[in-house]
Write a structure and sequence with these properties.
The chain is α+β, with helices and mostly antiparallel strands and 288 residues long. Helices cover 39% and strands 22% of the residues. The chain has two domains: 106 residues, Orthogonal Bundle (Arc Repressor Mutant, subunit A), CATH 1.10.10.60; 166 residues, Multidrug-efflux Transporter 1 Regulator Bmrr, Chain A.
Amino acid sequence: MINDMMRAEIWLHERLDTQQGIEELAERLGYSASQIRRNFKRCFGLSPSAYRDKLRLDQATLLLSYTPLNINDIAFKCGYRNHSAFSRAFLRHHNVSPRTFREQEQSRLQKLRSQLRHEYEVTIDHAQAKQGIVTRFYAKRNDERTLPDELLSHEALEVLPEKLRRKRTIGIVYGFNSDNDFSTADMGVEVEADIADELAAPLLFRTIPLPTYRYASVDATALSELRSILNYLLTKALPEQEERISGAPLQLVWRDEGVNALGQGTFEVRLPLAAPASGARVSKRLLN
C-alpha cells in the first residue's frame, strides 16, 4: 500500500497543470476513490486533493516570487481554470492575495540580498536531453533528519544493477521556495535517452525524461550549501543579469560517475532558467 501511495503522490505531482481527478488516479491504481483518499491521508497527512492544492500553491509562490509572469499566466501554469479560482485558493491558504504576496516578497528578497554572506561563481549552460532512472525520497515528518540527510544515505541506489550504478548520480529537488525545508526529491542516475529502455529499472524506480534546458550552475561540495547557493542565485546573481527561473525543479548532478560518489566529491547545482529574451546570447557564459 505504501508503494502505491508513493505512486499516487508522484501522479499528482506530475499533473499539477491538469484537471484530472482522483477517480482517474484510483482507476489507474486499482482502488476505489475512497480507499485512495483514506490511505493517502494516512501516508502524507493530507487528502489527495488538499495535497495537490498545496503543491499548486507552492509552485505559484515560486513563480510570483522569482518571475515577472502575470498572475493569469501563473494561475494557468499551476492548474487553475481562471484568475478568480486561483486568487480564492491563494487567499485561503496564505491570507493575502497573489498581488500582495508578490509585493511582500520583493521586500523580503531585498532584505535577504543585503544579508548574503557568500558569493559563488555562476555559469549559464545548457543540458542535452537525457533520461533519469530515479526513486522518490521524502523528508521524514517529526524527525530531525532533513531531506539532504536522506539523500546522502544512498542505500536505496545500491539495488540498481551494476551497469546503472556506474552512471552519473543525479538528484531532482522539488519545492525550493522561501525558507521552507526541502521535502521531496528524486534520486537516481542519468542515462542517455536512446538506451534507457534497454536498462531494466528495479521496483520503486521509474524512468523520467530529462529534457534539454538552460540552467544556472554552481559547484558545491556539501548539500548543506544548497540554501545559501539558492539565496545567492535568486536574490543577486540572476536578477543582475536579467535572468529568471523557469519554475522547473532544482537538479543536482555529481561530477564523478557511480553512486559511490554520492556524499563525497563535487556536484553541480543546476537551477533551470526560462528561455532567454529575443536576441540574447545563449552560449555558455560566466556570470560576474
